[in-house]
Design brief:
Blueprint: E1 5-10, H1 33-42, E2 48-53, H2 58-69, E3 74-79, H3 101-107, E4 116-120, E5 123-124, H4 127-139, E6 145-152, E7 163-170, E8 176-188, E9 191-196, E10 199-203, E11 208-216, H5 220-234, H6 245-254, E12 259-263, E13 270-271, H7 277-290
Parallel strand pairs: 1-2, 1-4, 2-3, 6-12
Antiparallel strand pairs: 4-11, 5-13, 6-11, 7-8, 7-11, 8-9, 9-10
Helix pairs in contact: 3-5, 3-6
């Protein structure tokens, strides 16, 4: 049986952070956040890591990561661009915004032929999340059964501004029944609220959300490609539109093509949205090293 692959979405622009946070140093020995995910993936049975990056950071990413752990796990790099996988008739000269996470997934389809996990480069997910993913992708995944690690929304907010989260509805059997991408969530007096376009919605603190920590059978590429072409047709003139993975998950659920199981590995999470988040992340990583969750040096 093939070992699962880890797909890392590292092509983000970092506009709110003010730089390329996916290659910024956070750990005690200048480790990136990505490296903790890869360390946890290796010890959870993954056999390959695929980076989706922008062309502008491709060479620097190779220079950083290949020497550090290239002998421990197979590495592939693919580029997400405004032309990659976009038929010429849908390419728009004024488009500047990347097409989003589901497009990034499609950019990797030529190098992934086995079950795989998908994560963000700038999020720390915790060892338990990778153990749950590795076990599911090795033993339970099917063409019509995928998974997602769920995190309670109260544990995945920023103290420095609003965040976007995929807010989940879950069946009593632990299956995802639907997800809505909420783009302006923050803690306020009286609870956690989504406020956008004149709407104010209170969200239960324990409600599971997607932190873009997914596990898929490789059949997802074919299903995503069909939705991608529909998305391009519908949004040719909408230069800020994005094609998100939750749209794919919702589609396979509503069409009865497949199911998404919510895994319980989402215990610890922290991430970087704003520059002010960096100090907190560095402090948390230093603490995890001190507690023995990670060795003094990862590699």
């Amino acid at each position: 049986m093939n070992k699962p692959t880890l797909l890392i979405l590292a092509a983000g622009m970092g506009s709110r952070y003010g730089g390329d946070k996916q290659i910024d140093a956070f750990g005690p020995n200048a480790e990136t956040i990505i490296e903790y995910s890869i360390f946890d993936a290796i010890r959870s049975g993954f056999g390959k890591v695929v980076f989706v990056v922008r062309q502008e950071i491709l060479e620097e990413s190779k220079e950083i990561f290949i020497p550090r752990f290239g002998e421990l796990i197979q590495i592939e790099f693919v580029v997400q661009s405004l032309k990659n996988g976009v038929p010429e008739e849908y390419q728009h000269p004024d488009r500047k915004k990347p097409y989003g996470t589901a497009h990034a997934l499609l950019c990797a389809k030529e190098v992934i032929n086995e079950p795989f996990a998908v994560i963000n480069a700038d999020d720390f997910y915790g060892q338990e999340a990778f153990q749950a993913l590795g076990n599911f992708l090795t033993h339970d995944v099917k063409p019509d059964l995928h998974c997602m690690v769920g995190y309670a929304i109260k544990n995945v907010l920023s103290d420095y501004g609003t965040v976007s989260r995929g807010v989940c509805d879950v069946s009593p059997e632990g299956m995802l029944t639907g997800m809505i991408e909420r783009t302006a969530i923050s803690k306020k007096e009286g609870g956690i609220f989504h406020e956008a376009d004149g709407e104010k919605l209170k969200i239960d603190a324990e409600n599971p959300v997607s932190m873009n920590c997914w596990g898929f059978h490789q059949s997802i590429f074919e299903q995503t490609e069909k939705l991608w072409l529909s998305f391009l047709k519908e949004n040719k003139e909408n230069l800020k539109s994005e094609f998100y993975i939750p749209k794919v998950a919702n589609s396979i659920i509503t069409e009865g093509i497949g199911k998404v199981k919510i895994l319980e590995g989402g215990k610890v999470w922290f991430g970087v949205t704003y520059a002010q988040d960096k100090e907190h992340v560095m402090k948390e990583l230093k603490k995890l090293h001190a507690e023995g969750e990670y060795p003094a040096k990862l590699w």
